[in-house]
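Sequence in, structure out.
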Amino acid sequence: MIEDRLPEESDVQENEILRQRTEKLMRLREEEGYDPFVHEKWIKKHTLDFVRDNFGHLPEDGKDDTEIVTAGRLMTLRRHGKAAFANLADENSSMQLYFQVDTMGEEEYAFFKKWVDTGDMLGIVGHPFRTRRGELSILVTKCVLLAKALRPLPEKWHGLKDTETRYRQRYVDLISNPDVRETFRKRAKIISTFRRVLEDHGTLEVETPVLATLAGGANARPFVTFHNALGINMYLRIATELYLKRLIVGMLGRVYEIGKNFRNEGIDIMHNPEFTSMEVYWAYADYEDIMDLTEELIVASADAVGGRDVVYQGTPLNFHPPFRRATMAELVKECTGFDIYEYGEGDDARARQFAGTRGVDLEGNESRFIVLTKLFEDLVEDTLVQPTFVLGLPTEVSPLAKKNPEDPNFTNRFELYIYGSEVANAFSELNDPLDQRERFVDQLKKKEEGDDEAHVFDEDYVNALEYGLPPTGGLGIGIDRLTMFLSDSRSIRDVILFPTMRPRN
């Protein structure tokens, strides 16, 4: 359905400024023979941080003769006859500029005064000085117009708040909000930290298909497309797991992949249909080794972006190891009083009855282990604010995990929760091809019964297991969610540069 959208007053004003500036550009080309878009490059020798770091010692009214050659976007401009003050921003910082006819010369200053507007990209040559009011600035001797901004900056460039505009026009958001640029630098640091830690452990980075004939490795609804040449349906991947474990069969030892996954599901502050995860698999390791690795990765990431004591949406989070470790059964008993070990075979109805007294919605055919999982999801998850490893998930909801030999109803698996949200999922990988086949058959039955998110039957993956998968530990971490918590970002859309949005028209 296409919704009509009436132009807002701000749209009308912006369109009028666009018209005026476009005319101004035409006059600039005609009157001056100057085209700001022909510059192939500008040799930017100094950042604004360099100026701040090296000339911050200047006293009031003090000046240095060092020539500064920099560039950036003009954020504000205040003209005062034969002088003007402006604010220039580059990728990391901002600084005041002082334009003066006596310093620039009549012709240079006249060009600046007539043709330069806020939003324009400028090349600047000048000298550092500190004003009488104590502000470190650059006294401009030369100003080169490198690109003309035809659209105006947001009225309050220092604080674009409209989330609709921020997400749809991320370029405007990045221009207007330096803290947003910092969030994405933190995201990049987290990813580079992951790579460093994993490579220090001898782990090989690989790439696996994004488009495949099956969507396996997780319980989720995929995006479906059609390949014309092959005449078959294909799927955007929902996880990288099954391909990566094939590589362990192929004797690559330790592998990881950082990449996009796609799930055709709801959108909210914790979910985006396109998201980034890191999956890693180590041959000859188990889930306890992977738990230690998970802790190492997350602590190192916290160190890289500001420290282990984090405040998220006003709540202190402690990323100092060791993180708490507890089984799902223990946590559910703590919060609800439900003790799974008091319910044996034939007690499924009684377990469902207990869940009903706690307000948990059920379909009426769940096993006691599904009841345990539902109680956890509905009543326990939100209580796990500090980083917590949840161990011992039921086999029934873990089709790819190895059973616990002491209690086959549960698996050697864990999930990591932070602020009530799952950030990581890991387990000792199921490497018994006969057991795996049976679990795929069970998932297939659930799919035939109408469960769109049940796992597909991947015959080739079972075939790979029949060649022999060594004992293996595997892990998936959501990069987006971890970045949220380490950058104090309320929504997953705040840490994805271009989140999925419904078209305006």
